[in-house]
Amino acid sequence: MFSNYEFSFRPIARKFVRSLVTSHGIWEVREAIILRLTDTTGKVGWGEIAPISWFGSETLEQALDFCRQLPEEITQEIIFSIPDDLPACQFGFESALEAMGSGEDVTITHAQFSALLPAGEAAIHQWRRLWEEGYRTFKWKIAVGEIGEELRIFDLLTQSLPTSAKLRLDANGGLSYPEAHLWLQACDNLPVEVEFIEQPLPVEQFSQMLELSEAYPTAIALDESVANLKQLAACYAQGWRDVFVIKPAIAGSPSRLRQFCQQHKIDAVFSSVFETAIARKASLQLAAELSRHNRAVGFGVNHLFHQEAENWLQSLWNNP
What we know:
By secondary structure, this protein is an alpha/beta fold. Helices cover 37% and strands 24% of the residues.
């Protein structure tokens, strides 16, 4: 017997405090969709659809089209039959359903988060404030500027960080094969630990990344290559045993993600897609259940947005 849920949704747009620079370009505004499911007893479950189309999820427009064509009353059957080409929708609806029966919130301290540093030279000054706030793992975007200049800044950054800090380098698939070698060589014998280089090469260069992962002591993490469950399973089947970066909000069905991670005992790092507190709570719940190697989660991104008002959800529904 399937329960019925009253369904409503609202699109949202949040401006970054400072534009986010990645190898895919400059990002100014984070758009998403907030979902509300209400059961027959009046219990509410909130969900969030936060797509990143250039990362392999559906577009925001496709997600909105899907929401618009749904009836005002939906069932679990509808939720569990959302197609795989709408992974952010799968996550949003399933996590709203799970939120109805959720108990205690997951508590993760700043020390268990990795904080995102700005690209370029600003990173050398920014880490201190984040360190004072309690962060101990930092992520820095590379393949944004000229490689010689980035390696120079990298040298300054690793010299200035405390030796107990950990650094993650994220190339967003923006390096060439020779550049990836240069970065991996630069990661040897440093005063701080480079935990891994994230997605050094484009998705289609999987075999070269597999080769690099076997050639250097610094780990490589797949990110864009494993954006959804289907890709995750494919890379595992092709022999990837280094780190998998999982962005739960665009990976697809949380129940199937759980099953995959538990079955294969993969080394996973859970990461943000610049979601609101709604999807963050659901993502951190998964991270708490499925992280195996005590790696910091990539959710230290709150400083990138202005803080939400406490009653923001209420306002969103009252002012459609």
